[in-house]
Every structure is written in C-alpha cells, then in structure tokens.
Amino acid sequence: MSRHILLLLVLAPAFVCPGRAANPEQEIDVFNRDFRDATLRMDNAAAMALWDDEGVTLLPGLAPIEGKKTIAKWLDDVVARMPGYRVTVQENSFHDLQVSGEWASEWGTTHQVVQPPDGKPAIDTWGKILLVLHRDHDGRWRIREEMWTQGTKP
Amino acid sequence: MSRHILLLLVLAPAFVCPGRAANPEQEIDVFNRDFRDATLRMDNAAAMALWDDEGVTLLPGLAPIEGKKTIAKWLDDVVARMPGYRVTVQENSFHDLQVSGEWASEWGTTHQVVQPPDGKPAIDTWGKILLVLHRDHDGRWRIREEMWTQGTKP
C-alpha cells in the first residue's frame, strides 16, 4: 500500500464525518459557540443551520413552533420587525451536558442585551434555556427542542 | 431444580427491575400518568418520587431550582401558601418522545385548572413543558430537567 493511500485512510473519517472529529462534548462546545455567535450576529441563516428538520421551539406565551421551515419563517419575521436593532451581548452558560448516542441535553442561563436604534435604552434580558440536541446524518449536532423562559439577574 | 426455584427465576427480573418490565415507551407512558396524577392530587411526596437527585426545574421568572431536596422544599412552600386550593384539571399532551439508553426527552402542552377556596373564579392556565428524563439505578424514569412556560389556549 502506498503512503498516499495510507494517509487517505487515516484522514478519511475526518472528511466523511466532520462533526465526529472530536468527542461529543467538544462537538457540543462548538455547537454552543456557533449558537451564541449566530444570535449575536442576528444571522438567521447561521441560526437555522443549527436546527433539526423536526425541531420545535417553545417560547413564552406562544404556541409551539414546529419544524425547521416554520421556525425559519418565524425568525425572519421577528428580525424584520426590528430594523436597526443590534444584539450587543449574548452570554449563555450551559450545565449538565448529557450525551447518549445520537442524543444530548443541556440547560443554561442566558443574558442578552439588545440595543434599539435612535439611542433608545438597551433591553437587558436574563433567561433560562433547555436544549435537546440530535446528531444528524452529517455528524453535526442540531436543535431538536429549544425552550426558553424568563430568568433572574444573578 | 424444583418448580419453586424455576418460578423464582422466571419472576425475578420483574422484582429486581420493576421499571424495566415493559419497553421504554411504555415505561414513560406510566411516568407521564404518575406525573399528571401527582399534580392533580397535589401530592408532593408522589411528585418528588419522580425527580432525579440531580434534577433541575426551570420556571418563568425564577432562578434555576437545583437538586431534588431544594425542589422538594420549594414545592412544599408553594403548596403551603395555597390553603384550600385544588387542582381540578391537569391535562398534559406529550410529543416526540426520544429514548437513547438511560436518557429520554419529550415536550408537551399543558392545561391546568386550579380552584381557589371561597368560590373565587377558577385559574385556567395553558402552558408548554420540556422534560429530560433519566432512568435511575432502580430502573425508574425520573426528571433530570423540567422547564415550563406560558402557552396559548388552542
């Protein structure tokens, strides 16, 4: 066997399953960073890339929003109603990560600051979040269920 | 081998692992029924029997309540502040049950009616719930994380 073929065999799993290059805990650290960054940048495409096709989001006072396409439309509508708003702080602190096969869960506390346009006062929101994650066919962890509710300032 | 020993061997697994007598989905159906019944009866001991020692409840406007003992004290305090109140309706409809090894998750919609004493108007509450369940050493499914938030009347 040539050295090139050997090298290919060694590297192949990293190309086939990019999400599996690290252990699940490291993979979900990356997910958590991407999740925070997408919110901070108000990047709906990046946020939706983190959702399972059958994902459900459960938010205060709303009916359950079911399915990636429905969530994407809802998120686009939310951002469209906030021209000039910017997320200036998004801090999520996650706890009790549990991974079992292709499924994982974690809960966290969240802190978000949104700056409205025209110098209006910033909106400071503390909350709690619970996520159920599913590792998709491509090896990436995606949100199957997300729930958020109001928290308290520590 | 005597007939008695044979009978003991056949029956033993049911005694050793009562929670594993059925498949996980059936076990969690039983959990869901017990969970609803404990709330309906305002039976705090029965409710707390359904919690993992390291369980966390995440409720609107409150800090996370962490650990079975802390949750038990909080629940006793809540019920102590409601003398004469009765839960007359508790309907939970669960969806997307996923079981992976010793871990499971499900989300649901909830409808609760609480009747205050002295003929005051009933309190009608619609909500959404997300549960992460863990199968304990005794084979029983218990709540690791519970999150609830306000929903909408269908």
Task: Considering the chains and any ligands shown, give keywords for the structure.
homodimer; alpha+beta; 154 residues; globular; 6-stranded mixed sheet
Quick summary of this structure?
Chain A is α+β, with helices and mostly antiparallel strands. In chain A, 32% of the residues lie in helices and 40% in strands.
Description:
The structure is a homodimer of 154-residue chains. Chain A is an alpha+beta fold and 154 residues long. Chain A has a single domain, classed as Nuclear Transport Factor 2, Chain: A (Roll). The first copy, chain A, contains four helices and six strands; from the N terminus they run H-H-H-E-E-H-E-E-E-E. The first copy, chain A, has helices at 3-16, 24-40, 44-48, 68-80; strands at residues 51-58, 65-66, 86-100, 103-115, 123-135, 141-150. A six-stranded mixed sheet of chain A has the order 2-1-6-5-4-3. The longest helix of chain A has 17 residues, at 24-40. Chain A is globular, with a radius of gyration of 18 Å. The model of chain A is unreliable at 8-20 (pLDDT under 50). Chain A binds chain B through residues 54, 56, 58-64, 95-96, 98, 100-103, 105, 107, 109, 128, 130, 132, 134, 144-145, 147-152, 154, and chain B through 54, 56, 58-64, 95-96, 98, 100-103, 105, 107, 109, 128, 130, 132, 134, 144-145, 147-152, 154.
